[in-house]
């Protein structure tokens, strides 16, 4: 977050490299600093052995090991989901959610599973969001700020202290492609030597910021794209997703084509199921016709009621019927998103920060409208 007296995170790589180079210290030291910080998260970056004095003084003055801290942590009764409330420099907060896919319901009841091999971390890229999707609680906040690359990476650092993380999804608060530079830098760090995550285990979810969809294929090769579509026609999409007016459906589908020409990757199409709005048989056929010739997996997301909207979730029966039309008639690979951690108010996704967490925050201070 931008503020006058801020210190940078040591994971704000471009700033750290630039400041090191400015005082004549090789940027190679970045890796040494990170390795030290990850091995000793409680010590300061300037304690790193072997750093030149000039670098130590500069780091003391301008950088912190971690600029954010976990203020609360809650795990679902079945042990599958852990939600971290993370306070940023300046007092605002975001949420990051750990989901353990191989922890069967009840199997790990009584506590979080340690050492889970397939854990996915859902990260936030912004505080709030300016896109205003009508079903999304985060959208009602407006945009409060962009996370720096360091603040994005720090969510991984915090989560890794709970359990090893294998996958990252940018499906928390915010529109990642509206904070493009930080998201790209953050992912480059996550897939670099220190964290070593595979690009194919990272997914960036967007509501459809068309110019950036084209950039991401070049800037983040191997990283997955998820596209939040929610409607098969321009008219219906405009009702649900206001930014569809600026980024119309025909241009979005053209951007999807261009992305896939460059990346050659299957895209996850997300579709929040809203009863009586976008879940009829007619809409299912329109969606099937739109998607059948694309290399996509359609992911139907059960709507999680948000206080800010009057939408109702589609029934289980209608969800299955919708899926059958897409699969059976149009041959579109279609999955239904499994909800996890409902007893702790959902997995990764929507949240509204109802107050600053400067004073003893509780997760109950947050209304989490997460799906997933
Ligand atoms: C919170 S968004 C963040 C990423 C990005 N801004 C986007 O829209 O794709 C992640 C996913 O959650 C979905 N979502 C938002 N509000 C929801 C709700 N109330 N119920 C279910 N899913 C929701 C979005 O449609 C999107 O697919
Ligand atoms: S769904 Fe995504 S783009 Fe839309 S308001 Fe929520 S966070 Fe923003």
Short characterization:
30% of the residues lie in helices and 21% in strands.
* Termini Cα gap: 27 Å
How many domains? The number is: 2
Average pLDDT works out at 86
The CATH topology annotation of the largest domain reads as: TIM Barrel
Keywords: 4Fe-4S, Cytoplasm, Iron, Iron-sulfur, Metal-binding, Methyltransferase, rRNA processing, S-adenosyl-L-methionine, Transferase
Domain Radical SAM core: 115-343
Cofactor: [4Fe-4S] cluster
Pfam families: Radical_SAM
Can you walk me through this structure?
- One of its GO terms (biological process) is rRNA base methylation.
- It is found in: Cytoplasm.
- The chain has helices spanning 13-22, 29-39, 53-62, 149-160, 180-190, 210-219, 234-240, 249-263, 281-291, 316-329; strands spanning 8-9, 63-64, 69-75, 81-87, 93-100, 119-122, 126-129, 142-146, 165-170, 202-206, 224-228, 267-273, 296-302, 333-336, 351-353, 366-368.
- α6 links the parallel β10 and β11 (224-228).
- The longest helix has 15 residues, at 249-263.
- By secondary structure, the chain is α/β, with parallel strands linked by helices.
- α9 (281-291) packs parallel to α10.
- Helix content is 30%, strand content 21%.
- Bound molecules: S-adenosylmethionine and iron/sulfur cluster.
């Amino acid at each position: 977050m931008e503020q006058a007296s801020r210190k940078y995170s040591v994971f704000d790589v471009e700033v750290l490299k630039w400041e090191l180079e400015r005082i004549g210290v090789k940027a190679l030291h970045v890796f040494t600093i990170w390795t030290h910080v990850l091995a000793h998260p409680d010590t300061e970056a300037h304690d790193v052995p072997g750093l030149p004095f000039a670098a130590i003084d500069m780091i003391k003055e301008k950088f912190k090991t971690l600029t954010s801290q976990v203020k609360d942590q809650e795990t679902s009764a079945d042990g599958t989901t852990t939600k971290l409330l993370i306070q940023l420099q300046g007092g605002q907060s975001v949420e990051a959610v750990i989901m353990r896919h191989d922890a069967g319901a009840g199997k790990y009841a009584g506590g979080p599973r340690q050492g889970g091999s397939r854990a996915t971390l859902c990260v936030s890229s912004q505080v709030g969001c300016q896109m205003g999707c009508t079903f999304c609680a985060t959208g009602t906040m407006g945009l409060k700020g962009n996370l720096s690359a360091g603040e994005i990476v720090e969510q991984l650092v915090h989560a890794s202290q709970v359990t090893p993380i294998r996958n990252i999804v940018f499906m928390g608060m915010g529109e990642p492609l509206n904070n493009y530079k930080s998201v790209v830098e953050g992912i480059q760090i996550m897939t670099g030597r220190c964290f070593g995550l595979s690009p194919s285990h990272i997914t960036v979810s967007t509501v459809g910021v068309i110019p950036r969809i084209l950039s991401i294929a070049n800037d983040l090769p191997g990283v997955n794209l998820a596209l939040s579509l929610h409607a098969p026609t321009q008219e219906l999409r405009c009702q649900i997703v206001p930014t569809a007016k600026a980024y119309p459906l025909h241009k979005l589908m053209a951007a999807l084509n261009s992305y896939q020409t460059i990346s050659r990757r299957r895209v996850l199409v997300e579709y929040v199921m809203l009863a009586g709005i976008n879940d009829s048989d007619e809409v299912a056929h329109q969606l099937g016709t739109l998607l059948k010739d694309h290399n996509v997996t359609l992911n139907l997301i059960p709507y999680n009621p948000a206080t800010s909207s009057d939408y109702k979730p589609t029934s289980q029966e209608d969800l299955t019927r919708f899926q059958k039309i897409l699969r059976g008639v149009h041959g579109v690979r279609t999955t239904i998103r499994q909800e996890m951690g409902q007893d702790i108010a959902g997995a990764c996704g929507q949240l509204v920060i109802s107050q600053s967490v400067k004073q003893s925050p509780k997760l109950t201070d947050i209304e989490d409208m997460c799906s997933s």
